[in-house]
Amino acid sequence: MVEELLHSGSGWMNFGIFFLLAVVLLLVVLGFVTYAILAERKVLGYMQARHGPNQLGGKWGLLQTVADVLKLLIKEDIIPKAADRPLFIIAPIIAFTPAFMVLATIPFTEKFQFADIGVGLLYYIAISGMTVFGMVLGGWASNNKYALLGGMRAGAQMISYEIPLVISVLGVILLTGSLNLNDIVAQQGETAWFILLQPVAFIVFFIASIAELNRTPFDLPESENELVAGYFVEYSGFRWAFFMLTEYVYMFAMSSLITVIFLGGWLPPFDFLGFIPGAVWFALKFCFVVFVYMWIRATLPRFRVDRLMEFAWKVLFPIALANIFLTALIKTLFF
Amino acid sequence: MELLNLYQNNYLIVFVFLCLGVLLPLVALFLGKFLRPHKPSVEKYTTYESGIDPFHDSRVQFNVRYYIFALMFVIFDVETVFLYPWAVAYDKLGVFALIEMLIFVVMLLIGLAYAWKKKVLRWT
Asked: What is the interface pTM, i.e. ipTM, of the complex?
C-alpha cells in the first residue's frame, strides 16, 4: 500500500497520510525517550550499587518519567528580563526540529522506513549539524555568564567533533559507493558488517558521536558542577524539557544510525538465524548501542576542557583521514 | 513520471518531518500556557548568577580561540564536501582520482600542521 502511495502523484492527500504516519513515529520516539531516561537512571543506579527510581509505578519505577514530564508541564514559564526574548523562545525549537527531522531517512527495517532518499547519510549529517545553532542561540539569548560559556563550549565542541564524525563514515561510503542507507545495509548483507571491515572508522565515529550527543565524558557544555547546566541554565519548565528531549531524540537517532551503517541494520548476524524478523534484530542491536552509551557515561569521568579540542584535531581527525586513504588504497590494490 | 513521483514523495516526507518538528514544540508550549501558573515578581526575572546580584552585561568580548576553531571547521568541512562525491564515485574514478585527492588533502594538512605548530589547537 505504501509502495503505491509513494508512486502516486504527490498532493495534499499524501501530505495528510505521511503526516499521520510521522505522528505515529513521533509517539514511538517520545515513548522511547520516556523509557530511555528511566533506563538510564536504572542502569546508572545499578552500576553505582543503588536502585534508582523504585517508588512510582511498581518496583521498577515505570511511571517516574511520566510524572516528571507532567511536573514540568505545570511549572511556571520564566523568561529573564535581561534575555533576548524572541531568540530565547525560538532557540529550543531550532534545537529540537533537526533532531526529529533526521529520523526521516533512517530505515528501521526493510518495510518500516520513511523517506528513501539517495543522499540519506549526507542528509543526516547536514541536518544534525543544525542543532548547534539552537544551543549557541540559547546560550547567547539567556544573557547569563554560565549560559554563554556553555553555549560557546557547545559550539566549539560540536563543530570540532563533527569533522572526524563526517570523515570517518567516508570509509563506509567508499566500500558501498552510495550515500543511500538502504544500499549501505544491502552491501553489508553481501560482504560483512562494516564494524568488521571498518573497525577504525567505527571507533572514531563512536567517540565523535558521544561528543555530538553531549554525553559524558564529553558533556562539557552542560557540566553541572562548573557551569551549573550550561546553555540552558536560564530555561525552565517545558522550554527546558525541549532541550532535554533534543538530547534523547538524538540518542535515538544516533543509535539507529550506528546500527544501520556499522551493525548491519535489520540483517541477522548469521544466515541461519534469518527466521527471526528483521525488526527484532534491529531492536536488539539498537538497545545494545543505547546501553553502551549509558555504560560509558557510568564509567568515564569528564574530559578536561583543554584536552577536549586537542583530542578532536590531533588524534581523531588524522586517524579518520588516514583510514579513508588506507581503505581507498586497499580497495584499489586488492579488489 | 513514476520516478519523479517517487522522488517528490520522498522529499514530501522530509517536509512533513520538518513541519512536525516545528509543530510539536509550538503546540506543547501553547497548550502548556493553560496549565502553568503565572505569578510574576521582580526577583523571578533577574538573571541567575549563583545567588548574587548579576553585574555587567554578560555579552562581553570573548576569547578569540572559539573564532579560530570556527575558521578551522569551515576549512575542513569544505574539504569533506569534496571528499563525499569522490567517495561515492570512487569505483568509476580509479587510481588517478585517488592521487589527485591525496594531493588536495595534503595541501589542507599543511594548514593543519601550521595551526598545530602555531599552537592554535592548544586550549591553554
From this structure: 0.84
